[in-house]
Amino acid sequence: LAAAFAAQDRKVIGVFQAGINEESLAKAAKQFKVLDDSFRQIPVFVLGGTVDQIATPDAHRAVQRQLKRAGFKNVQLDFIDGPHVVDPRPLGRALAWFASGSRD
Questions:
Q1: Which of 10, 46, 62, 98 has the most crowded Cβ, counting Cβ within 10 A?
Q2: Tens digits of pLDDT across the chain (104 residues)
């Protein structure tokens, strides 16, 4: 959605991705032709579970590495104790991080 919104000249303040096991943001940005320096400045908060067996912690670390290799400057990886669930509590941390200027 972030890439689609950026393609419509909408301001994206951050991307929250939870429970993912593959990089999709840079791929979408390429598809929507918005993968430029400005888009790469958008902060990305990646959240995983410490014992997630579907989207493993290693998969989350790989996504973080792939985003950084794609040129994303502000990528934060965080984990919650638990399995493959979306826990809304870290969303507040992500929003605060976005609002703070989002520097690793």
A1: 46
A2: 999 999 999 999 999 999 999 999 999 999 999 999 999 999 999 999 999 999 999 999 999 999 999 999 999 999 999 999 878 889 999 999 999 987 65
